[in-house]
Amino acid sequence: MPVSSAPESGYCIGIDIGGTKCAVIAGNRNGEVVMRLERATVDGLATWPDAGETLAVMVESVCKQLEIAPTILYSIGISCGGPLDSKTGTILNPPNLPGWVNVSLQAFFSGRFGVRRVYIENDANATALAEHRWGAGIGCDNLAYLTCGTGIGAGIILGGQLYRGKGDLAGEIGHAVIIPDGPLCLCGKRGCLEALASGSSIGRIASQELGIPGLTGKDVFNLVKTGNELAATVVSKAAFHLGIGIANLLQTLNLDRVIIGSLASYAGEKYLDEVREAVRANTWKSIFEGTKIIPSGLGKGTQDLAALAVALPIED
Ligand SMILES: [Zn+2]
């Protein structure tokens, strides 16, 4: 385990803020997690400013166990659902955290601990940074990481730099329209990729098709494993739609790698092959052959590493 050294410790803090739980992770610049604390969001983290105090106490507790003062932390990185402003380090009005509106985490943590480097990214961008640094994107300067869980979003790295777009909204591929006038999406539009191919959408569509209420994406993949043909058809359609979304992304950005998170970890190789086939059929041969479409390389601690990666931005 690396040991801290003055004047700045070698430790960074990653903070993963979610609608159900928040975690404070201490790690070093090699992505080794040395300490973590987790708390349910309902437990003092649901509304600001109480949540700030709770997080600060968690950071202090982690630092105490590491026997360092928070003031000598190398950096703090925060991974959180958007929308947010990475330039000012502000969480805007995330739907999964209704008690946090226009919260400047950068100002809060800089003021509280005097740490100069405080960064914030949305969770897709954070995971793309972690894949690029430690996972399936090592050595690759043009990649997209796709979250494919409840929703679909992408973190995009171009020319070795995270591409955030004008207002931190780059990579919102889950709301690219795949079928005009298709099923209604939570964003209010119709036929978005997310409404057709996310884990939740696979569950919802399979519930309708099979007449079994309340199916999750994982349930559907388990049904496929038992030989359920209707479930397999739902999954194949979702894979096809995801493939169209990825094909459009590749046709626009000519990426080296597309890394698929969440779904790909439990969906299996057949699903990934169906996605690849849809991409192949809908892009130029030269673009398809220059790209690898692969599952996440980070494993179980993905969210922790994503938060740590934000503490270590590429440009740092
Ligand atoms: Zn949408």
Describe this structure as you would to a colleague.
By secondary structure, the protein is α/β, with parallel strands linked by helices. It folds into 2 domains: 124 residues, 2-Layer Sandwich (Nucleotidyltransferase, domain 5); 160 residues, ATPase, nucleotide binding domain (Nucleotidyltransferase, domain 5, 2-Layer Sandwich), CATH 3.30.420.40. It contains 11 helices and 13 strands. The strands form 3 sheets. It has a 5-stranded mixed sheet with strand order 3-2-1-4-8, sandwiched between helices. Helix 3 packs across helix 11. The protein is globular. The protein starts with 11 loop residues before the first strand and ends in a 6-residue tail after the last helix. The structure holds zinc ion. Zinc ion binds next to loops.
How many beta-strand runs? 13
Low-confidence stretches: 1-7
- The CATH class label of the largest domain is Alpha Beta
Q: Give the CATH architecture of the largest domain.
A: 2-Layer Sandwich
Order of helices and strands: EEEHEEEEHEHEEEHHHHEHHHEH
CATH topology of the largest domain: Nucleotidyltransferase, domain 5
Question: In what range is the share of β-strand residues?
Answer: 15-25%
Number of helices: 11
**Name of the CATH homologous superfamily of the largest domain:** ATPase, nucleotide binding domain
Structural domain tally = 2
Q: Ends: how far apart?
A: 23 Å
Helix content: 25-40%
Structural class: alpha/beta
What is the radius of gyration? Answer: 20 Å
Major sheet: 5 strands, mixed
Averaged pLDDT, please?
Answer: 94
Ligand list = zinc ion
